[in-house]
């Protein structure tokens, strides 16, 4: 018997239909309701669960009571175990986080959740990288790569994983947009972390592009290229992201996934530096900055790496910025240039143009930067 | 009573088809000890006395100690085995071969196959004295001359046994060229474009070049500004296809080659597929120093499953000295193999070329003549653009890049909209195409175009055949919107309904020989 965790964020997707860009925040949910929004996430979850009917007798669903999972699981006659309870009240993100923690305790084989970027963030906050998950896209904002491209595919992917037809795992970005800013017309995405998902080249949003090389192999190839070409006594500032992190892993060094680390001669100088520390470290020294595009829109600066401020970038110098990216990531931009949003117009202008991107061992692309 | 014979109605557009199904074992599993195809009688003493036993003349150290582990099967069973397997395939002689874009799956005249099967070809050996193979050397030489006319370049080698090997040879010539100029150490970068064939990047990487890839600009052409920022004193050369795999022709190609020449690099043209350009444009006029043609694509020698192939490699006069040896020369009286190229890159393959392919290409060119070759290009482009227009009318289909402009010989299409609308992917459509006995390919990397498919009708398809292919795609796209389940469960008329390839890139699961299959499945 396989254990399958399930969370349905019932309010996910409600804001979209009434033009509210999302449902983060109780007042927004109320507003959505008053505008006539209805629950759509449960139906999305049903589409995914339907695919699992073939192996219904081999699965036990671990979930939350009522509309956060129990109802839909029982609808299909799955053996269902409820591990957390919501009374008859509006749900919020704490319910998602509490249930996710309970599901973690149950040591499930796979964890399905239906929602949007906010839900993915809550799940990440609760379980980190401790479980294998698949997102069923049901929210308004789906920037995170943890979501399958549609609910049926999420179900198919779950089926393949539970049947052990897929055994590889990969890390997928959890990205969210600042909804308040989004409602005001500006998009600011942030990388919040990584969730572990089954790797199947056809099924994941943004990763469906597939490649003969796995994400991990591509990242390792990039890391080896960087390491083989490192100069002596130069400070290397390693920006956030899983591609840049693979450099630290190959060097056998500790690292800060979402922060900025500094190394010299392949040894740690400082982990998780702030802008101030960074300025002090690089002052008067030759330093190189290694960054990778963050988030769904291909931002090089201004998303999740604010420590690397305009001041820092100017000190380092444009010629000392090394951009690394897997081919998959570049291809997923579908021709859209990399973006910079440093908060400094002059600097943005200076960074605009073409950049050499290290895409593998001895493998480069020339790619456009704009702002 | 008079029996009236009924005429069979053939007015339905979609073909009814069902693949043959045989539960056919692997040939090794069919083996019975002692079973034989032909029983060869023992030679009589009289014969042995005259010519020997046929074995003792072979040096002892070369004689096999144990007999080969071959399946032991009668001739009739072997014939049935292969005929059954052939019924389960969907080859170019069986279906309307449009679906394998970039590969130029054109009709290969059977008469040319007959020529290649003549004993005068099959019984010759590359070690034979030149004086005894003047005929085939003449064909090599004259095919070289045809290629010069077609490309504008000055000399061809037929040694490379395929496109990637020809690219490797071009990259090696680039290296030798810079070595001769004492610049080899600093010139370590090769520039290509993302929609050139992936081998244009892979082959030079094999000999240590760094590869720099250019992406399309906002109009869908290779980004010339990116090229300008990519070139430097480190640039060794440019290796690109044109048209690219999208069917987009880079009309500024001469500017590209000028930019690369200006900083001292060499320019190489991947013309593996030159089907839309015969008699239209020439490598030389676009400023290229080298090019290659795949004889098994444009020049009609059939191909598939990795061979046989031939990448005819052409160079300008000043690069001739770097060609792989031998090349075939003519001194006015006789043809001979010329090994005397002191700057030669050496060999990329044994001997001087895949003889049957060169012969087939020669026969094909001779049968068409100059005007015929131009006609091939015109019809291939016409067929493609007819198909292009019709496919863009199918709901859900599109063709990213240079919208509104015509393509050369092929198009990379996208079902992005159809997938968004219905959840049906290009792979589902591929599975459904099998139900109509049609091959359809979902394209190779780079995976930039979402839900892609690449079609290339070549000059070989009639309008009726194009229409059948289009109608089938139309019908399937309609199904996607109206009854998607039928696509999700396709193919319905095939032997194998779903292939699980999730472990395809796991070497532990590969068994490429019978021996390794037995070893890996020993305990299961």
Layout of helices and strands:
The complex is a heterodimer of chains A (371) and B (524).
Chain A: E1 2-8, H1 14-17, H2 26-34, H3 41-51, E2 59-64, H4 70-75, E3 79-84, H5 93-105, E4 110-115, H6 117-127, E5 133-137, H7 151-162, E6 169-177, H8 179-183, E7 189-198, H9 215-228, E8 235-238, H10 242-251, E9 261-264, E10 267-270, H11 275-282, E11 287-291, E12 299-301, H12 310-316, E13 321-324, H13 327-332, E14 338-340, H14 345-351, E15 353-360, E16 363-370
Parallel strand pairs in A: 1-2, 1-4, 2-3, 4-5, 8-11, 11-13, 12-14, 13-15, 14-16
Antiparallel strand pairs in A: 6-7, 8-9, 9-10, 15-16
Helix pairs in contact in A: 3-7, 5-6, 9-10, 11-12
Chain B: H1 45-51, H2 75-87, H3 110-117, H4 119-122, H5 134-151, E1 155-157, H6 163-180, E2 189-193, H7 199-206, E3 210-214, H8 224-230, E4 235-241, H9 253-262, E5 266-271, E6 290-294, E7 311-315, E8 327-330, E9 335-338, H10 355-392, E10 411-414, H11 416-422, H12 426-434, E11 452-455, H13 463-482, H14 485-488, H15 514-520
Parallel strand pairs in B: 2-3, 2-4, 4-5, 5-6
Antiparallel strand pairs in B: 1-7, 6-7, 8-9, 10-11
Helix pairs in contact in B: 3-10, 5-10, 6-7, 10-13
Largest sheet of chain A, in brief, is:
9 strands, mixed
- Give unreliable regions of chain A as ranges: 202-212
CATH topology (fold) name of the largest domain in chain A:
Rossmann fold
- The count of DSSP E runs of length 2 or more, i.e. the number of strands of chain B, is 11
By CATH reckoning, the class of the domain at 116-366 in chain B would read: Alpha Beta
SS-based class of chain B: alpha/beta
SSE series of chain A: EHHHEHEHEHEHEHEHEHEEHEEHEHEHEE
What would you give as the CATH superfamily of the domain at 116-366 in chain B?
A: Type I PLP-dependent aspartate aminotransferase-like (Major domain)
> Mean pLDDT of chain B, rounded to whole units?
93
Task: Report what the structure shows.
Helices cover 33% and strands 25% of the residues of chain A. With 371 residues, chain A is an alpha/beta fold. Chain A folds into 2 domains: 197 residues, Probable inorganic polyphosphate/atp-NAD kinase, domain 1 (Rossmann fold); 156 residues. Chain A has a 9-stranded mixed beta sheet with strand order 10-9-8-11-13-15-16-14-12, sandwiched between helices. A 5-stranded parallel beta sheet of chain A has the order 3-2-1-4-5, sandwiched between helices. Chain A starts with a strand and ends with a strand. With 524 residues, chain B is an alpha/beta fold. Chain B has a domain of 251 residues: 3-Layer(aba) Sandwich (Aspartate Aminotransferase, domain 2). A 7-stranded mixed beta sheet of chain B has the order 1-7-6-5-4-2-3, with helices on both faces. In chain B, α3 packs antiparallel against α10. Chains A and B meet through α7, α13, β15 and β16 of A and β3 and α8 of B. β16 of chain A pairs parallel with β3 of chain B, so a sheet runs across the interface.
């Amino acid at each position: 018997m396989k254990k399958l965790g399930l969370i349905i964020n019932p309010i996910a997707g409600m804001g979209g239909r009434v033009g509210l860009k999302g449902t983060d925040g109780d007042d927004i949910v109320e507003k959505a309701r008053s505008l006539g929004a209805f629950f759509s996430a449960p139906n999305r979850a049903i589409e995914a669960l339907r695919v699992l009917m073939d192996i219904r007798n081999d699965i036990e669903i671990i979930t939350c009571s009522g509309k956060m999972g129990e109802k839909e699981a029982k609808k299909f006659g799955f053996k269902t175990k409820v591990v957390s309870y919501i009374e008859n009240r509006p749900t919020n993100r704490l319910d998602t986080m509490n249930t996710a923690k309970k599901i973690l305790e149950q040591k499930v084989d796979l964890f399905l959740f239906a929602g949007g970027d906010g839900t993915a963030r809550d799940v990440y906050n609760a379980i980190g990288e401790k479980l294998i998950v698949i997102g069923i896209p049901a929210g308004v904002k789906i920037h995170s790569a943890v979501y399958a491209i549609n609910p049926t595919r999420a179900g198919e992917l779950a089926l393949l994983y539970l049947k052990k037809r897929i055994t590889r795992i990969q890390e997928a970005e959890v990205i969210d947009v600042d909804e308040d800013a989004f409602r005001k017309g500006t998009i600011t995405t942030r990388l919040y972390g990584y969730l572990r998902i089954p790797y199947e080249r056809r099924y994941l949003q943004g990763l469906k592009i597939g490649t003969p090389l796995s994400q991990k192999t591509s990242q390792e190839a990039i890391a080896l290229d960087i390491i083989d070409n490192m100069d002596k006594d130069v400070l290397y500032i390693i920006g956030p992201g899983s591609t840049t992190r693979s450099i630290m892993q190959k060097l056998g060094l500790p690292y800060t996934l979402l922060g900025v680390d500094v190394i010299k001669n392949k040894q740690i100088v400082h982990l998780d530096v702030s802008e101030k520390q960074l300025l002090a470290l690089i002052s008067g020294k030759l330093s190189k900055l290694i960054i990778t595009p963050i988030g769904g829109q291909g931002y090089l600066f201004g998303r999740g790496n604010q420590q690397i401020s305009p001041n820092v970038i100017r000190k380092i110098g444009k010629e000392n910025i090394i951009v690394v990216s897997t081919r998959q990531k570049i291809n997923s931009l579908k021709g859209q240039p990399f973006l910079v949003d440093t908060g400094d117009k002059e600097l943005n202008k200076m960074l605009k143009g073409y950049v050499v991107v290290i895409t593998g061992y001895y493998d480069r692309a020339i790619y456009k930067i704009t702002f | 009573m008079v029996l009236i014979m009924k005429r069979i109605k053939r007015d339905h557009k979609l073909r009814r088809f069902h693949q043959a199904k045989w539960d056919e074992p692997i040939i090794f599993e069919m083996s019975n000890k002692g079973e034989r195809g032909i029983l060869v009688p023992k030679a009589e003493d009289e014969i042995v006395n005259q010519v020997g036993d046929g074995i003792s003349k072979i040096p002892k150290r070369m004689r096999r100690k144990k007999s080969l582990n071959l399946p032991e099967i009668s001739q009739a069973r072997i014939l049935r085995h292969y005929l059954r397997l052939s019924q389960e395939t969907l080859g170019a002689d069986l279906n309307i071969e449009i679906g394998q874009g970039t590969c130029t799956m054109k009709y290969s005249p059977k008469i040319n196959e007959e020529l290649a099967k003549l004993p005068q070809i099959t019984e010759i050996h590359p070690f034979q004295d030149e004086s005894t193979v003047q005929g085939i050397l003449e064909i090599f030489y004259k095919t070289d001359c045809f290629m010069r006319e077609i490309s504008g370049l000055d000399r061809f080698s037929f040694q490379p046994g395929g496109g990637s090997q020809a690219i490797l040879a071009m990259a090696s010539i680039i290296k030798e060229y810079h070595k001769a100029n004492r610049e080899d150490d600093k010139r370590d970068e090769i520039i290509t474009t993302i929609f050139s064939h992936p081998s244009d990047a892979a082959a030079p990487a094999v000999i240590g070049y760094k590869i720099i890839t250019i992406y399309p600009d906002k109009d869908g052409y290779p980004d010339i500004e990116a090229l300008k920022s990519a070139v430097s004193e480190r640039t060794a050369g440019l290796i690109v296809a044109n048209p690219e795999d999208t069917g987009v022709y880079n009309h500024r190609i001469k500017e590209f080659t000028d930019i690369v020449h200006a900083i001292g690099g060499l320019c190489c043209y991947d013309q593996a597929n030159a089907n839309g350009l015969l008699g239209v444009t020439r490598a030389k006029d676009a400023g290229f120093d080298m090019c290659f043609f795949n004889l098994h694509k444009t020049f009609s020698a059939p191909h598939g499953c990795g061979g046989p192939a031939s990448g005819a490699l052409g160079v300008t006069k000043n690069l001739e000295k770097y060609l792989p040896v031998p090349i075939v020369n003519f001194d006015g009286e006789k043809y001979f193999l010329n090994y005397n190229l002191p700057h030669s890159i050496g060999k990329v393959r044994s001997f001087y070329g895949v003889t049957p392919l060169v012969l087939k290409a020669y026969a094909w060119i001779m049968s068409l003549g100059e005007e015929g070759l131009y006609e091939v290009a015109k019809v291939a482009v016409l067929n493609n653009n007819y198909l292009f227009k019709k496919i863009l009318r199918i709901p859900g289909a599109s063709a990213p890049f240079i919208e509104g402009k015509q393509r050369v010989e092929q198009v990379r299409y996208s079902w992005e909209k159809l997938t968004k609308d219905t959840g049906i992917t290009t792979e589902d459509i591929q599975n459904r195409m099998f139900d109509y006995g049609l091959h359809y390919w979902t394209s190779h990397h780079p995976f930039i175009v979402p839900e892609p498919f690449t079609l290339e009708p070549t000059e070989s398809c009639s309008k009726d055949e194009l229409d059948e292919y289009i109608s089938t795609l139309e019908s399937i796209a309609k199904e996607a919107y109206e009854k998607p389940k039928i696509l999700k469960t396709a193919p319905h008329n095939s032997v194998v309904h779903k292939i699980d390839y999730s472990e395809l890139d796991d070497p532990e699961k590969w068994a490429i020989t019978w021996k390794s299959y037995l070893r890996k499945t020993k305990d299961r």
